[in-house]
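Quick entry between incubations.
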Amino acid sequence: MTRALSLISVFVRVSVQNFAAYRFEFFVRMFVSVGHLLAELLAVQTIFKNTPEIRGWQKEHMLVLVGVFRMIAGGIRMVIVPNMRRVMEDIRNGTLDYVLLKPLDAQFHVSIREFVIWRVTDLVLGGSLAIYGSYLTLHTVPFDKFILFILMMVAAFTIVYAIWLALAAICFWLIRLENIEMLFWNVFEAGRFPVQIYPAWLQTGLTYIFPLAFIVTFPAASLLGISGKGITPTMPAIAFLVGLIAIILASMLFRIGLRRYAGASA
Amino acid sequence: MMAAMRALGAHLRAHLAVMMQYRGEVLLWSVWGIVNPAVLYAMWSAAAESSGSHEIASYDRAGLAAYFLVMMIVGHATGAWDVYQMGHFVRTGVLSPMLLHPVLPMWRSLAENIAYKVVTLMFVIPIWIGFAWLVGPAFKATAWEYLLGTIALFLGAALAYLLSYAISLIAFWAPKLDALGEIYFALCMFLGGRFVPIAALPDSIAGLARVMPFRWMYQFPTELLIGGRVGFRDTLIGLGLQIVWLTFSFVLFRTLWFAGLKRYTAVSG
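Done. Structure below.
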């Protein structure tokens, strides 16, 4: 465990150094992050100009959801996307050999090689917006809700990581499919809004088949602490269970795929 | 011009073959153009339920279904991605070999664009039909509106392609501006009526949308094809303004292209 942590810290340090070499980039990127957020706020403004609420979600609630969506989208692009894109490329090019040569668990190693540090802005901006929306709703941010929210976010990132790992593992079979990640982005798009807007059959699908509800809607609802948005006291437990199942299945798929991998010479 | 047309034909055949080869990938890209309007339909129809009048910008549920269904089709016809790529082309010099061809690189990109849209039709048409069956859209268009709407759709697609290509040329001056594509996309989304009919936007943004070119690419052909929304006089004015903006985009393209090329030699030198 300490070895794993120290390895992660080494890779993070390298990423920070790379990032520090291009500081001007950071300001450009921050401008882009703020732009994204403004566009999302304009969307919220437009929605609630036309209606007081959508399926029980009012404007302040939606601010929390937008904030959570930005945090998840930013977190994915900070840690998951750079690493998973690289492993997919390694599988296609045969350069995964270099990973397999290292005395380290392959799945662990491919998951921590790169971090896009400036994406922290998404976490900070999104987090601030979520807290602000929660404050507008409840006039305080209760400590227990906050802890619940953190737990739900941990579960959400676990699920997202598992989905991406599974997509990367699929590359062992479908080597030619270069933009397989579009599978994720196409469904993730549906998470911009609470799952309650969808018809019941689709809600079920987005909860248990592709657990988008656990990735965006439920973490947002947990910070609001409002029942009737699919959040029950047992929800964090279910979220962790879904995360656990997802990660076990994804690692299994990755390991089976790894056995198919024939290296650069193939 | 003849040479350009022959080149377009040759590039078109080549790109059709490439697209067929990579149909799996192409399918995954094209699905996004379905998901986004479908999600927006779900959201706005849910919003209409609690809006008092049960309408959004005078569209009821079935009206919204028609709006976002047609927007899928219009979005497919107007898709263009040069504005995302040009920065990369300029920065890495990928543009250089393209400049050696006896015709403008735009013809090659146009051929790729058309090939993509033709090949992906076979995936998206069944999904459009499925979506229509699921949501039950209400159409009121007469034969005339279908005819003029189809003309407006093609003019809008031409305008979307040419204007976004012209804007992509900003890359000659700012090759590292990766956000250019995203900014352009956001403008189309809000000012074009892809997110919601313009009348539903906050007043200041709606005012801006009315004087910008984007509504003529998206909302105008969409509303014509739904029918009963645009009067005959407004239709003619709209078609006229599409041509005005198309001419504007052409002039903008010519100006930026030749000014940019002078800079480009300096960049790569």
